């Protein structure tokens, strides 16, 4: 699948991109306005062309001629249950439509957009319906589902809504994987069990005083910088 080119929007530090990269996709181009996130992103994806600007100002001629897919999670603050839940009335909430604008310009085979579970709240049902209809209007068969990372062998309860679309001239349907394939759930103890026992930097000192990483150059090439 390394020949399958991906455009990443709202890339952040590259968590979603890492999943696609590990699955064999080629993250060809990314875009993220936050400069601090870019420092981590370029370390983890040195081979990816990174643009680094507001998606509102992103134009077709800055992108490759062809991509197989677009991935990305538009800002979640507008939909988060921990926030004011202004939804589509928040300028950040409207960035979903910029995602759709880019999708319409490129017309890849598929797209994946993810967001927090709050987008399913009753007060946002009209907005979510409008967003999924817009995805359909630009030529995609769309489905969405709330998934919890703990059900897919990740030691964390992390619920996210995944909106996935397949271009409607492609005779394929996306099926969300069954959680039963990944039972029993992995615990944090399971995930960390192969790590060496931590050693104190000073005698009788439990801190990591002199052993913490202060320079990205100290990170091994086969590690994922966080």
Features:
about 230 residues, alpha/beta, 7-stranded mixed beta sheet, globular, about 20% strand, disordered C terminus
Summarize the structure.
The chain is of the alpha/beta class and 226 residues long. It is built from five helices and seven strands; from the N terminus they run βαβαββαβαββα.
Helix and strand arrangement:
Blueprint: E1 5-9, H1 15-22, E2 26-31, H2 35-44, E3 49-50, E4 69-72, H3 95-106, E5 110-116, H4 125-137, E6 140-148, E7 159-167, H5 188-192
Parallel strand pairs: 1-2, 1-4, 2-3, 4-5
Antiparallel strand pairs: 5-7, 6-7
Characterise the protein shown here.
Helix content is 21%, strand content 19%. The protein is of the alpha/beta class and 226 residues long. Strands 3-2-1-4-5-7-6 form a seven-stranded mixed β-sheet, with helices on both faces. Helix 2 (35-44) links the parallel strand 2 and strand 3. The longest helix has 13 residues, at 125-137. The two termini are 26 Å apart.
Mean pLDDT: 81
Structural class designation: alpha/beta
How many strand elements? 7
Rg from alpha-carbon coordinates: 20 Å
Question: Which geometry do the CA atoms define?
Answer: globular
pLDDT < 50 runs, ≥5 residues: 77-87, 212-226
Helix content: 10-25%
Which strand order does the major sheet show? 3-2-1-4-5-7-6
| Percent of sequence in beta strands | 15-25%
SSE pattern: EHEHEEHEHEEH
The biggest sheet amounts to: 7 strands, mixed
């Amino acid at each position: 699948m390394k020949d399958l080119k991906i455009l990443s929007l709202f890339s952040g530090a590259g968590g979603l991109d890492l999943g696609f990269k590990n699955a064999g996709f080629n993250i060809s181009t990314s875009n993220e306005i936050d400069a601090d996130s870019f420092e981590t992103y370029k370390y983890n994806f040195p081979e990816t062309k990174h643009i680094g600007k507001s998606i509102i100002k992103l134009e077709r001629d800055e992108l490759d001629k062809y991509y197989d897919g677009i991935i990305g999670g538009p800002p979640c603050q507008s939909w988060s249950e921990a926030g004011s839940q202004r939804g589509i009335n928040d300028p950040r909430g409207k960035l979903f439509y910029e995602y759709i604008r880019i999708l319409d310009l490129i017309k890849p085979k598929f797209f994946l957009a993810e967001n927090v579970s709050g987008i399913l709240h009753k007060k946002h049902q009209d907005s979510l319906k409008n967003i999924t209809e817009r995805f359909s209007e630009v030529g995609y068969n769309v489905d969405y589902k709330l998934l919890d990372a703990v059900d897919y062998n990740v030691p964390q309860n992390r619920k996210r809504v995944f909106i996935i679309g397949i271009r409607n001239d492609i005779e394929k349907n996306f099926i969300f994987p069954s959680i039963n394939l990944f039972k029993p759930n992995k615990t944090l103890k399971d995930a960390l069990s192969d790590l060496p026992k931590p050693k104190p930097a000073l005698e009788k000192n439990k801190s990591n005083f002199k052993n913490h990483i202060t320079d990205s150059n100290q990170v091994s090439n086969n590690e994922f910088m966080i």
